[in-house]
């Protein structure tokens, strides 16, 4: 079969061009480090690599959200630490107020110190994180979750945030705490009942915060402890305000412990005939701000020496302040648990990111050793083809005629 010179040249040039194209393609893959540059290179690998990239994007988004949550929780934990320090300082002031030698001036100075500490605690409760989110706004609802309300009865604090606590997910944490539960849910008195002095008391009777002596015997009723001089002997009687029945009565002895219907408390001081104590079951919580405000009001109204009312109020305020401090510690413990969980989630997400990146690399990255070897083979083949073409091109019948 005769092969035309033109056909031979065209076929050789076509093969050379293909070799040059393959060599250029290999050079591009080596320079990018990718085996799959276009979906047409390996459709299955391209689809799987795209899926792995989507997984990587989701992991990156989870990591960013986790970091934002960790920042907020870290700042909330710090704020709770500040609040705990302020409450401890308030407690020190109340303990100092127990000095029997203080006069009205000293008590007013202590009241001013408590006011400053209360204002600082109010500021901590309204703190924001670095992104401008409130740390104790619960589920949101207000840019200022705690609002000071002034009225005839004195300053109170209202929660304008949205009550509730966002649950932590598999890859996310809450970004704010329920400030109402932290600051405004302090159990009054001993948590089961409160003891208040009668409004018309003129004597020096007072009581501690009491305790539950027998939970099963408690009725949940309110009681009034009345003192009366009977034939020169001071006696007390306990009346159940719900039933109207007298549940206990006996001569009064200073320092005696009164116990009835599962509750017990110690009474001290000398009562006047007609004095009373009101024992009420706890139905609603108080809050840290109100506890401190009550102590401030008592100190501002105190004269020289320690009245029964002042001692009673400060004792109850100390108990409730300690209960509020316990709630702050519990909230801080919760933030610590969340931060530990954040570390575990971060480690899990990092492992996932590494696995997805490895999967994507296996699908689309070029084996550089194999790629360079193929490039060298193609280069050698092209050089050999060009050399052969140059030699064959010189062969012509006209070179032998003449």
What does this protein structure show overall?
- With 402 residues, the chain is α+β, with helices and mostly antiparallel strands.
- The chain folds into three domains: 1-33 and 366-402; 36-188 and 284-365, f41 fragment of flagellin, N-terminal domain (Up-down Bundle); 189-282, no CATH class.
- The chain is built from seven helices and eleven strands.
- The protein has helices spanning 5-32, 43-96, 104-125, 179-183, 288-300, 308-364, 368-394; strands spanning 146-149, 156-159, 193-197, 206-207, 211-212, 223-230, 233-240, 246-251, 257-260, 263-268, 276-281.
- The chain has a five-stranded antiparallel sheet. Strands 4, 5, 9 and 10 form a four-stranded antiparallel sheet that branches.
- A hairpin with a 6-residue loop joins strand 1 and strand 2 (156-159).
- Helix 5 (288-300) packs antiparallel against helix 6 (308-364).
- The longest helix is centred in the C-terminal third of the chain and has 57 residues, at 308-364.
- The model has no long low-confidence stretch (mean pLDDT 84).
